[in-house]
Predict the structure.
Amino acid sequence: MKCVIIEDEIPAQNILKNFIAKIPSLELVATFKAAIEANTYLNTQSVDVVFLDINLPDMSGLDFIKTIKNPPAIIMTTAYSEYAVTSFELDTIVDYLVKPFSFDRFLKAVNKAKDRLEVAQVTTEVNEETIFLNVDKTLHKIVISKILYIESQRNYITVVTDTQRLSYIDALKNWNTKLPENDFIQVHKSFIINSKFIDKISGNTLYVSANKIPIGRTYKQELLIKLGV
């Protein structure tokens, strides 16, 4: 599980890093001292678990959760037990750790997050929206949420996932009505990308699972707005 720490106190950060390093199923991908620093990252990167302090310099952890488009599993870490009731009113919060907490208590919280994610994954797989593409007289099943990007080249469309690359005669405009607006964004006259797989944006180029995609000048502002930048 990819995890992030949002904690302004260095000693508390170090304790979390030490505990995370002891659990093979956890991978620490980023650490932030303030909520605003983490906002763009969490709205553009895929993260499974966030260890979140309540008292942060710029806004409270509870207010910060409301700014995340698709919140991951949240484990609150704080010295103040009085926020526990309020925290559990938010469905995305799986546990509440009161400092100082032991490794055993930390592991229990991580296991709760793991159970929550496993249930969510099963539910997603059951309800996954799919589409069939007729390519070379063969029907190929595509899971829409796993599409990385769609590219238009003259009269052809190429649909790219992490395991498939299918090309057939079609127009890019026909895909705008087939795709969920929350996840898919047209970034160029020839490209529609899945925002869940954006690794980074550099100038007028974005990287979708290591694939370089150009950003058209007329599309960039809408892209940044949708990403909350």
